[in-house]
Design brief:
Rossmann fold; 55% helix
Length: 249
């Protein structure tokens, strides 16, 4: 019987969904009335779906998102202050294709992290590689990379991501070395890939958190001038959820 050698070859070719589909077609009589072309088309579609799913899972795993967020779960009520049409347009990923940036700002608890992770998830589904960082922890990683000599390797790895998300951007004032490091990263990415920053610090207050005015100008120039801006408003979503839970008990 030629079936087992065929199955073995499909395994060697790394076509697991194709193989599983053949097994299903052999055992399920509903396929018996289909033509060869129809059955082959089903098998190819199964393999493509499996590969798309596997690739998405790899992207999501490498992204290290803080939240498993989806735009379908985001509150677009007027009090949030964001344009739903603009956010949905950003979810299609054209801004990443065009190597542009996004700045999400707003008060604590406004949903900035949720929105950034939701847009990051959408970017992964659109076949873009994404990496999410909490900026304070990321700056610690940079310090360690300098200490152990892996800084150039880290820069090269970061440059390969289509999109990097920096949450808690400018939460703390930067040192001179941290400012230089961030400029290195933004300079590598400018015009080549996209960056998203998530912050509660207004853009016009960034300068005072960067010790060198020249570095401050350079960082803002590479990040702000080609960025879409999403300004969230309204009450803290954490406070609202806590109030709802307390009133329900």
């Amino acid at each position: 019987m030629l079936l087992q050698p065929l199955m073995d070859k499909l395994t060697q070719l790394h076509l697991p969904a194709f193989r599983k589909g053949i097994e299903e077609q052999i055992t399920n009589p509903k396929y018996s009335d289909l033509s060869f072309d129809e059955r082959l088309s089903i098998l190819v579609d199964l393999e493509l779906l499996q590969r798309d799913s596997s690739r998405l899972n790899r992207y999501l795993k490498k992204a290290h998102f803080h939240l498993d967020a989806a735009l379908e779960d985001f509150d677009f009520s007027p009090m949030r202050g964001v344009d739903k049409h603009q956010v949905l347009e950003l979810s299609h990923g054209g801004w990443i294709t065009n190597k542009l940036n996004v700045i999400i700002s707003g008060p604590t608890g406004a949903g900035k992290t949720f929105l950034s992770c939701a847009l990051g998830h959408a970017s992964c589904r659109n076949d873009f590689s994404v990496r999410y960082f909490r900026t304070p922890r990321f700056l610690q990683d940079l310090r360690l990379a300098h200490a152990d000599g892996s800084y150039p390797k880290l820069l090269a790895a970061l440059a390969r991501f289509d999109l990097i998300i920096f949450d808690d951007w400018m939460r703390d004032a930067l040192s001179l070395v941290q400012s230089q490091d961030l400029l290195d990263i933004l300079d590598d990415r400018y015009g080549r890939s996209s960056t998203m920053v998530v912050t509660q610090i207004p853009i016009d207050a960034w300068h005072e958190r960067i010790p060198d005015p020249t570095l401050a100008d350079a960082i803002l120039d590479r990040l702000v001038n080609n960025a879409y801006r999403l300004q969230l408003t309204g009450e803290s979503q954490r406070r609202l959820r806590s109030s709802t839970l307390m009133s329900a008990t």
